[in-house]
Amino acid sequence: MSILLVINPVSGSKNKSDFIVFAKESMSKAGVEYRVFKTSGTNDCSQLQELISEFSPDKVVIVGGDGTLNMFLKPLMDNKVNVGFIPMGSANGMAEELDLQDNPRVLFQKFLESTSQKTLDVISINNSYLCLHLADIGANANLVANYEKDGGRGMFTYAKHFWTEFRNLQPFEFEIKTEQMEYERKGVMLAICNGRKYGTGIPLNTIGKMDDGFFEFVVVKAMDFTDLIKAALSKFDENQQNQNLETIQAKSATVKLKSPRLLQIDGEVIEKFEELQIEIIPKALKFMI
Questions:
Q1: pTM to 2 decimals?
Q2: Are 36 and 167 in the same domain?
């Protein structure tokens, strides 16, 4: 067996040196052929593609945040390798989504021994971007953009930008055309969901599954303090109802906006768009369990 260990050394501002030593010792003890690839921020995706082609690993284990995993989706999908993800970033929604709550060493040992996997869907946006978990435009994308610009990190910085965005919510208009229906809507956020929960554990999409061949739009029509309380409670009781949320399920769709809006995908801000072409790629990623 062979394993390619992919490390983002700067994700989440977490020191991963001890983990790397542990992982190498574990693979050596198990008699596994392995290589370690550390991201540098320069041509990482193309370098990983070349390394996978050259090394042909049985398993690829990604260590970083949601954005790190997203960055490598295309080569992972194209090469049909078995993928493991160890969340050590600032945005770890996938950890909540796929119940990756064990500590990194326990997770790595699990992936080292794994002999089974499930295939997950992936969302394609404008034939240029891939989304495994959640994308959105509106309030959350603005929040992520402002958080990224801030020199600070952690929950205090996040909370600061959350309340700034919450106090200044601006509804916007958009049209959604799916393979079945057309919708005209107005809201403070439009989420594009393959998964169900943000990294806080708060469920947004209550009907979606990451392997059902569909994605969901969640239209957040408005948000007040009562909605925030319901959202917080929904982490413990997903039957909490919110009349300001509408869910639309589709396999493909076009979104047209009245004016350009920021898009964020899996915790990373992309750019502003006026139109989005969205489709599901079913059974695209082999994820170890």
A1: 0.90
A2: no
Distant-in-sequence, close-in-space partners of 182: CB < 8 Å, separation ≥ 6: 175, 176
Give me the numbers of helices (H) and strands (E) for the chain, helices first please: 9, 14
259: domain CATH number?
2.60.200.40
In a domain, 79, yes or no: yes
Which of 87, 115, 143 is a domain's end point?
A: 115
C-beta separation of 230 from 204 below 8 A: no
User: Residue 96 is part of which domain span?
Assistant: 2-115
Residues 176 and 89 in one domain: no
Instruction: Residue 103: name the closest of 18, 192, 39, 27 by CA.
Output: 18
CB 125 within 8 A of CB 131: yes
What would the pLDDT profile of 76-129 be if each residue is shown by its tens digit?
999 999 999 999 987 677 888 888 878 999 999 999 999 999 999 999 999 999
Q: What is the DSSP string of 23-54?
A: HHHHHHHTT-EEEEEE--SSSHHHHHHHHHHH
Instruction: Count other C-beta atoms under 10 Å from residue 218's C-beta.
Output: 22
Q: Is the pLDDT of residue 219 over 70?
A: yes
User: Does 249 fall in a domain?
Assistant: yes
